[in-house]
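Regression report. Comparing outputs from two consecutive submissions.

Submission 1:
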Amino acid sequence: MSLLDGRTAVVTGGAQGIGFAIAERYVAEGAHVVLGDLDLAATEAAVERLGGREVAAAVRCDVTKADEVEALVAAAVDRFGSLDVMVNNAGITRDATMRKMTEEQFDQVISVHLKGTWNGTRIAAGVMREQKSGAIVNLSSISGKVGLVGQTNYSAAKAGIVGLTKAAAKEVAHLGVRVNAIQPGLIRSAMTEAMPQRIWDSKLAEIPMARAGEPAEVANVALFLASDLSSYMTGTVLEVTGGRHI
């Protein structure tokens, strides 16, 4: 039996990158997956890559808007019959030094990452508490642990997700709902590979394993947290960093 047979998962920001890798891993383990993303065309294309409408569905969703997250969760329940896993992954970057960062850039990142994760956690927990089971997986970042130059907005949001995860975990543990977080480090993606070579090299030098991670390696941890393998874990933060900043 596969680890997620018969379960339904929602993944925000699921059209590409880490979100898509998580969705792909979940489908491989028997789950139905609903992808929520701003770009509906890209999300529909991702559904086809996952195996089509038998196993996945696409919903346009702006995670900063509670009604759209509610519609995303409702679509999963209506289409596949339950909500067993919620992955709050959607995110953006608006990097700039604190001196140059605009208030709008700060607000945008806080809204998508922190408010978006709060929306997803709150709304998913509301469904899961009724069925007395469920796993919520929030994507933080190593930036939320150590703080990175040019990311006062992103580091603040990702640190906030850790606090949110721990508080929410305490609120819903007695209802059978688990809430955990992942802090990825340098993961190979279109965004990170666009870095100037000198910045890439400096980040790589901080990693004891001497390589960047792959999205699939984050997805494996997201699978663990979604499955019964982690049945006695809640409020935890798992670093997927190759040993960076330990």
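Submission 2:
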Amino acid sequence: MNLFDDLIDPTKNWLPYDGTVCYYGKILSQLEANFYYSSLLASIDWQNDEAIIFGKKIITKRKVAWYGEKPFAYTYSNTTKYALPWTAELIELKAMVEKETGETYNSCLLNLYHDGSEGMAWHSDGEKDLKKNGAIASISFGAERKFAFKHKHTQHKVELLLEHGSLLVMKDTTQSFWLHRLPPTKRITSARINLTFRTIDSAQ
């Protein structure tokens, strides 16, 4: 933990309007964060992500994985994934996040960015499978990366730096009114793992 972690207010809303984003800072010690980073890198069934854009299949360098309490179907970018059963580490992290946020989650989408050249374009997590206005809890491990929000109508932007072992929560109408992205950067040469705990609305 650094000296400024105690100054982070998890109740602060980083969005000026039309949604709620709370940043909890580091919820894990350096040792714990290092442990989960190494464990997730080795134990998760990482696969290159696929998207169908204008009828053409695109395979990303970024790798993803989809886990949950049931084999939930999750469709985005015109492709469907079926959730794998929780691993021990994911169950531990889910319990930790639920305790911090007071929310419950039944699934987790994981992203592995090998270095700063890999990012995520502007998008919102508004897929029909997800609970409407539900909380999405994002834990970051590895390289510290900038995370950006942009209002869909006003173009107002908000940026945060997501630290190793930190937690960010998006909830309420955030997905309806705001886009978010992970900008690529040449400065980052190490990997980042991101877990987004979420709630699928209908049991499959």
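Expected: both submissions complete independently.
Actual: both completed, but the second showed a warning that disappeared on reload.
Relevant detail on submission 2: The two ends are 40 Å apart (CA to CA).
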